[in-house]
Each structure stands twice: as structure tokens, then as C-alpha cells.
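[job 4471] stage=fold_predict status=RUNNING
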Amino acid sequence: EAVKADPRVAEALRKRSIEDVQDDYGPEDHPRRRLSKPLLFVRTNGVDNDNGYARPVEGIYIVVDHQTMQVVEFEDRGGAPIPPPDPLRNYIGEAAPPAFPLKPLHITQPQGPSFIVDGTAVAWHNWRFRIGFTPREGLVLNSLSIFDQDKLAVRMVAHRLSFTEMVVPYGDPTDPHFRKNAFDAGEDGLGKNANSLKLGCDCLGEIRYFDAHLTNFHGEVQTIENAVCMHEEDHGILWKHTDWRTDHTASRRSRRLVISFVCTIANYEYGFFYYLYMDGTIEFEVKLTGVLSTGAIAVGETSEYTQLAPGLYAPYHQHFFVARMHMAVDATPGKKTANSVVQIDTVAKPTGPQNPHGNAFVVRETLLESEGDAGRDCRSISSRHWEIRNNDKVNRNGMPTAWRLVPHKNVLPFASPEAKFQRRAGFLNHNLWVTNYNLNERFPGGEFPNQNPRVGAGLTTWIQRDGNLVDGNLVLWYVFGVTHIPRLEDWPVMPVEYTGFALKPSGFFDRSPVINTELEEDAAPTMVAKSCL
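[job 4471] inference complete, writing C-alpha cells
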């Protein structure tokens, strides 16, 4: 009111063609103002480390103006009472004593790790890359290349890989849950919420840490110590074969390099992992854990969602992640990248002269020629995958060298296109998008998703130019995630749920790149005992 009443302010606003300075706001939530609608919970007095999400306070409607830090609207709408304290709500302390203790498991590398680090540059096995970190995306892999032992050459795979957005829409239409549609990267930032692993490491073995240096809201440098963890893991069998005719057995063990960080976004923890394998596979994985976001109902009532305790339920929701991959398959440094994307589906051949026994199946290829036609979905029934090919480079059979995008389990939104959050998250409606590289196109929801819709902002706008994708400098946007129908076993803290996908070489090498992997003589197991079956 003081600002509106000041004639100097009013005159300055009129000079800028601003006449309307009302306090109210409409369905568009006034994109010119920084408003938020907080959720309320209550902890039980006298209980140390009480679960902060076990007793939601519903029916109190509050709007806060972040520029003035004032409550600009308040309404007590009644609603369900606060749930009573659930005796099983806590996950640390006396409420959860240790059960079935395990003996220590030590991971040791007497000669140290196999990776070499020079600043942000990393070399491990046949891989070369640089580590980056941003407030919004968190961990980034740059200039990813792999050494080809047959050609004695380092060959490019990707310019830059990152997790660039994350959206969590809830499927409960009641207030306040229909408003739970957080853009956790674009609105808050994965990197700036990264855990310092000094406070508890989630890795085992010989660890190399990287600090992250960010700017905070005051323009000051903020350092997150040990934000990124890198280590090696044994990964079981790499390859094995027993020639039953000669009784000769050959086997090698697999190892992978793990580069990861973990962030806390309100009630959830998310671990973002890149795995680099000896055979050329790149795996993107997100580990979801933390505490469910809950709602209240009257004791004695039941919810159509997951009932956790008397008066307490967990709404159904989805977690979507977007990986941005600026590819450079077999690109020559200093020259224009020329990649194309092909969709590959497995199809059965019709029974007939070409398939007299009815057993034949082949693959059908579809070239993604333009940006407007490149919005594609996973299709497990046809083993659908996509290849990023370099038509200027061929393998020993004369076929283009390629890298394959292999989906794991995946989902699409259940929300209708008319759902309010969809105006900002239209990119969720396909699992794959492909665009030409543009330095200013980094985030699928636009630079400022909390101010959308904006002209020219976001992936669904960029594809409307329908640019040519054949032999181009391409960016793949892969949307993946999980539909979370909470279980009672997810309460009070959720065991890790996994989601992700992989990139694999496909005709990139002339043979298996791990055929000459050395036998690990020092990796002999220790026999504790033997039993007869």
C-alpha cells in the first residue's frame, strides 16, 4: 500500500506504461510478480528429528510476495483436521532401531584407482571427458570421447551431456495438491541443492571428490564441498564363454566408472548418476528416495490414493527427467558435426513366401528428417530404439558408425493437455525430441519456466521452425521417468526407486572393444565354506 500511494512511484510506473497496480491476482498468477503458495506441516513437540511430512496442515490458503516478503492473501478454508501422530512416522532414532546387522564390507584398491584426473579432465580405461557443474543442472559431462584400440585413435561421442529439467506433477485434484507441479531444475536448481558429501558419503571405495563453486542469490560465491563423487565399481561379468567341447573357459570381469551427485529438493532426494562402462555403454540413472509428500483426511475416512496411517495419505504422482545430449558421434574436431537420427522398430514379417515358417522378424528404419517430426515415444512392444549416425564415417562393413539410445522402462503424463502445468511442460508429451544445436536453447521449459508461457520459450516452440535434421549438429532431449503409486512400504522413508536409459555403441567399433581386456589375477575370491545340494 505504501508503494502504491507514493506519487513518485506512480509517476515512474506511468512513464513505463504501467497503470494497473492492483493487489489481487488472477488465474495466470501474475507472471510479473514473484508469488508463492506455501504448504504447511507441523512437527510433534518434544520429538527429536520428527518427520516433517507426517502431519500436513490443510485448508489454510496463503499467498506470499517474495519481493516484499509479505503475506498478500490469507484464507482459512477449513478442510481436513491435522492427522494424529503416527507411531511409525519416524525413520531415525529410537523409532527405528537397527535390525539384522551385517558384517562390514570393505572396498579396497591397494594400487589406487585406475582413473587419472588433471583439473576437470578425466581419463579412465578407454574414456576421456571433462567434468562440469552448474547451479541448474548439477553435474555435466563435457567433450566425451573414447579410445579405439584397433584404430589407435580417440573418437568423439558427445559434446555435452546433462540432466537439464525435472518435473513432478501430482495426480490429486484437491487443493493444495493439484498445484504440486514443481520444475525442480528450472524453478529451484539441482546443482544449488546438491548435498555436500562431507556430511555423509554415498559412495564406497577409492573416492575422488570435486567441489562445486556457484553464485548464490546475493551474487556471492558459494562452495559446496565434495559435491561430486567419482569412483570405480566392480560390475560382475564383462564376458564369458565355456567351450563345452574342449572344456576351455574364458571370462573377464566388468568395471564401471561412476560419476554422481545427490540433491535434496524439499521432501525428496535425487541421486544423478553417469556410468561409463568398458564396452562403451553410457548409462544415465536417477535414484529417487526421501519422504513422501502427504495429504490429510478425516480419521476414519479412506482415500482413493495410498493410505499411510489414520488421517494420512500419499497422492499418486509422476517424476519426469529430461536428459539433454549434444551429440558428436565420430565427429572430427574442427569440422562441422554431421549426425542423423534414425528410429528403429522390430516388426514381424508377414507369413508367406518370404517367411514360410512364420518365424521371421526384421527391423524397420525411419529417418527423423525435421524438428517438427522428431517428437517420438517409446514402444517396448517393438523394441523401439534410436541411433545417432555419422553417415560420413563407416565401419568395416561399410555401414555408418553410430551410437544407440536404448530406453529402459518409461512413462508419459497421465494429465490431460488442458492441465494447468502443461502450458509450461508440453515437452513431457513425447519421450524423445531432436533439435539443431543452438547455444541459447538449453532448457526444455525455457530459460525461466516459472514465467511461462513466453514467446519463443521452450522446446515445443523451437520445434515449430521445423529445421532440417539430416547430417546436422544435433541435440537429443530424452524424457524419462516413473509413475509413483506409493506403497505402504515407502513410508516413512522411501527405498530407492531407479529410472534411466543407456547409450551404446552400434557399429561404431569393428569388433567388441573389450575383447582384449586383461584377466584380473588379484581378483580371486575367498571361499568361506562349501555345501552340497
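[job 4471] summary: The CA atoms of residues 411 and 481 lie 6 Å apart.
[job 4471] exit 0
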